[in-house]
Amino acid sequence: MRIQKVENVNLALDFIRSRNISLTNIGAEDIVDSNHKLILGMIWIIILRFTIEDINEEGLSAMDGLLLWCQRKTAPYKEVDVQNFSYSWQDGLAFCALIHRHRPDLLDFHALDKRDARGNMALAFEVAERHLGIPQLLDVEDVVDAAKPDERSVMTYVAQYFHAFSSLSKAETAGRRLGKFTDVMQSVYDMQHDYEARVGRLIAAVQAQQGEWRRTHFEAVYASARGLSDAFNKYKVTTKRTWTDEKIELDTLLGNIQTKRVTYNLAPFVPKPGLTPHDLEAAWTELAASEVRHRKAINQYIRESRDILQRNYGAEANAIRAVLSGISAELASLSGELSVQLATVDGLINRAKPVGASLRRLAELERQCTAANIDEHDYTVYSVEDLEYDSAMVTKALQKKARFIENQSAVRNMTNLTPAQLEEFEATFRYFDRDGSNVLNDVEFRAALDSLGHLFSDEEFASLYDQLSCGSDYITFEVYIRFMVELTEDQTTPEQLLQSFRVIAGEKEYVTEDDLRMSELSSPSIAYLVKAMPKSDVSADGFDYLAYLRGVFQR
Q1: What is the pLDDT of residues 434-458, one digit of tens each?
Q2: DSSP letters for 298-327
Q3: Distance between CA 126 and CA 132 in Å, rounded?
Q4: How far is 389 from 460, CA to CA, in rounded Å?
Q5: Average pLDDT value for residue range 50-61
Q6: Closest CA to 163 of 30, 253, 47
Q7: CB atoms within 10 A of CB 539
């Protein structure tokens, strides 16, 4: 039996030596005879060779490299200071820091109780075995309770962390490489797809434009021909330039695709039939020929339409002048009753309204003539400026005549006001009649009253406006004039006198001598009123004007 054991151990030793591991001072008999010291030494050599010796970190290998790796990985953790493979690991924080640095999802380092060395160690061993596949080679007591933890044991266990996380890094590296290649292929595919889609859209747009030109209907009308010319000129500086930029970008894109495929040793890109560079160039050449044909057709119709344009301008200008002359002649010969005159003026105003549209048409014709380089007109002597001035003068004369007749009609029987007062009222009305409708709404009417110095409270004004407008949304000029006559005539009615006293008294129930002096009353008038009015019951220096008025008008 011993011989067989020795032979079996020799087979194992021969394999170890075949892996370039030097074994000295130990033979098969030492192992069979259970020489613990030699056996442990051999096991450490095996561990060092297969687990620790292949570790390399910044040029350092084996134990020094492993220690440097631990120091670098735990550097962000201020509670951890790895200086060796003994005391530096007793509180368990170094193991937890390595796990947290590589797999923060497995434990929360910052939530650890830094004083619970046994709990931290047990947590690190459990997490490492359960989630990282690292066997628990040490017991918690071997590290926490030992006076000096065994360096080789700790180093052997820590080496398992290095290899576990190195394998993870290799998988991540492989994934990054594959991801990079996939990204390159996706990028190339996207560029190729983008090229073909954009070429297809450009060729389709070019062909659609040529079809539109072929369907164009030409007329010997300058506006139409000029519009086609302007549209073509706009096409050249907008659409054509956009297409040119797109074609250049497509050429560049195709070059970039081919360069990228060469960089990654891929086969050259061949676009689909109908989307090749040759197809695009053929469409571009045909577009240029279509542009020449379209431009020649436009120029021909521009020449034919110039004479028609001048004739149209002359006919329009002469017609406008005839209408204005007729209106002026009828206005100058106006006579008869005011109502007849006003009806005639209204008719003339209606006749003048279409002149504005005619002038706008003439201005458009003038613009077209200018665009067509027509400086002199062969069929008329009237310019747009001439006719606009004449039209403004005729319109102004009609408006003035209509206002004059309306004023005369409204004030025919109003003899208690001076012409100056009537003129002031009329001017105020016209100023606030912003839209020229010859009526005032509530806002305009109140503004007119305020400007004339007649102020009313909101309640008073609302009642007054409702009375004058008869429930409508406006007050006519005639109603306005009649109201202003009533408001300003000195009729010495009880109501008017009461209102005057209230204004002078500042809406108080009594009036003082000082209030009377502040008004425009003469000294004799003030003396009379002070003597005639009874004393007020609510003010020592006041006078009861209400009692005074009741006594005067009830006798």
Answers
A1: 877 778 888 888 888 888 777 888 8
A2: HHHHHHHHHHHHHHHHHHHHHHHHHHHHHH
A3: 10
A4: 47
A5: 53
A6: 47
A7: 14
Number of H helices, E strands in the chain: 21, 6
Question: What distance in Å separates the CA atoms of residue 153 and residue 143, rounded to the nearest whole number?
Answer: 9
Q: Which two tokens stand for residue 284?
A: 């571009």
Q: Does residue 548 contact residue 532 with C-beta atoms inside 8 Å?
A: yes
β-strand pairing of 56-57 with 60-61: antiparallel
Q: Tokens at residue 376, please?
A: 């002199």
**What are the residue ranges of helices labelled H in 411-441?**
419-432
- Which contacts qualify for 409-417: CB closer than 8 Å, 24 or more apart? 409/338, 409/339, 409/342, 409/478, 410/477, 410/478, 410/481, 410/482, 411/481, 412/338, 414/481, 414/482, 414/485, 416/485, 416/489, 417/485, 417/488, 417/489
Percent of the chain whose pLDDT exceeds 90: 23
For residues 223-248, average pLDDT: 91
Structure letter (DSSP) for residue 87: G
Chain centroid offset of residue 422 CA: 56
| Crossing angle for the helix pair 338-371 and 384-410, to the nearest 10 degrees | 160
Contacts of 90 (CB under 8 A, 6+ apart): 117, 143, 144, 146, 149
Tell me the three state secondary structure of residue 36.
helix
Q: How long, in residues, is the chain?
A: 555
Predicted confidence band at 35 (pLDDT cuts at 50, 70, 90)?
A: low
Lowest mean pLDDT among 96-105, 322-331, 447-456: 447-456
Give the mean pLDDT of the chain.
82
- Per-residue pLDDT at 40 exceeds 80: no
